Design the sequence.
């Protein structure tokens, strides 16, 4: 929290605390709806917390990584937990050891704490980008009740990654190169999608270094930024005795970069209905996220009030989302940590709406978010 304190001036800390309160209120409503529906359908909380990626992170925290990569009869790698980066499982295990909480509840505690830190960062990011306090609160609330916000409530990696990402951006925009580099390093140990943040920092710090700004600090940021990602790759590879172990394991999840061919093919099948009309609501969510993200990136690029570093980050996120096929259902969740940047243009006009309208919008959005989360985590088959 020392890094956060140094990045937030004393007069702004009350406002930042207010943003955290907004997030907790909205997320609390959504999580309550999710738990109530889960209970109504006859499942206990433990069952819910081990669904999909949560189960993978929790099993790694409990048992460690596998020592080999399983293969299918056709020679392709089978699904395995070596594809999940190590920092979040390490945090879960650490909290479990220190507090005595179960692994699942330790994971929930980490997610909620990290999401609160991320909400504070979202608020400061909006203020750093020239938005007022109202826009900051609006951006936090919209992010907290977005359809895939459930990933901030359960033991997924999105909450920790979001906290590191947004505060790295705040540090980057404030010219705190070393802090940004350290946060970027940590983000790289959480998710490989940190490559977008790393590229943004490298471009920004590299430009500052070439122009001779801020002395040695941009150079330090350039060195620090990729170390977490590289370390994660090498550590996971060492578990199976090969430097490219993570890349081999990742083949099973279909995450190899294909320059967008898989995503374009998927969207084409949706638009022409393929063999049957798409009945799954997740298809509409994926299509909306891909198309609306592209529109948002273009709008950000055309808005001269938006710092260029945020445009670079948003564009990089869209390129990586488009270029990596994997589970198409996971694309909306992939964009969640980057969503506050995309929401900048919406948050500004929304901040001018009457308070009652905003309360109804955020409250209703929270209920819908919890309902949608129940569909994704409890009812639907296939990882969301």
Sequence:
């Amino acid at each position: 929290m020392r890094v956060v304190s140094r990045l937030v001036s004393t007069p702004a800390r009350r406002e930042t605390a207010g943003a955290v309160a907004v997030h907790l209120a909205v997320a609390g409503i959504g999580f309550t709806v999710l738990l109530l529906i889960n209970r109504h359908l006859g499942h206990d909380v433990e069952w819910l917390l081990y669904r999909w990626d949560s189960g993978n992170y929790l099993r790694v925290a409990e048992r460690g990584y596998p020592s080999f990569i399983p293969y299918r009869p056709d020679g392709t790698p089978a699904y395995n937990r070596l594809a999940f980066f190590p920092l979040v499982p390490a945090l879960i295990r650490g909290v479990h050891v220190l507090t005595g909480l179960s692994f699942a509840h330790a994971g929930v505690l980490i997610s909620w704490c990290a999401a609160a830190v991320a909400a504070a960062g979202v608020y400061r990011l909006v203020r750093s980008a020239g938005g007022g306090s109202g826009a900051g609160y609006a951006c936090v609330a919209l992010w907290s009740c977005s359809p895939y916000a459930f990933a901030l409530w359960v033991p997924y990696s999105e909450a920790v990654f979001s906290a590191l990402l947004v505060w790295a951006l705040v540090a980057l925009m404030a010219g705190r190169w070393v802090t940004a580099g350290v946060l970027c390093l940590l983000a790289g140990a959480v998710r490989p999608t940190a490559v977008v943040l790393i590229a943004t920092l490298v471009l920004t710090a590299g430009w500052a270094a070439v122009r001779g700004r801020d002395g040695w600090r941009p150079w330090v940021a350039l060195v620090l930024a990729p170390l977490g990602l590289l370390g994660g790759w090498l550590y996971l590879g060492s578990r199976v005795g090969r430097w490219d172990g993570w890349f081999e394991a990742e083949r099973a999840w279909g995450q190899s970069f294909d320059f967008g061919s898989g995503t374009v093919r998927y969207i084409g099948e949706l638009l022409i209905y393929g063999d049957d009309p798409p009945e799954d609501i997740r298809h509409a969510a994926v299509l909306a996220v891909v198309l609306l993200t592209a529109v948002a990136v273009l709008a950000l690029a055309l808005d001269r009030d938006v710092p260029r570093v945020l445009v670079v980050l948003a564009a990089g996120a869209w390129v990586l989302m488009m270029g990596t096929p994997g589970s198409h259902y996971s694309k909306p969740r992939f964009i969640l940590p980057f969503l506050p940047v995309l929401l900048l243009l919406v948050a500004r006009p929304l901040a001018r709406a009457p308070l009652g309208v905003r309360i109804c919008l955020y409250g209703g959005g929270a209920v819908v978010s919890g309902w949608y989360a129940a569909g994704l985590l409890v009812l639907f088959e296939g990882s969301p």
About this structure: Residues 10-40 form the longest helix (31 residues). DSSP finds 20 helices and no strands in the chain.
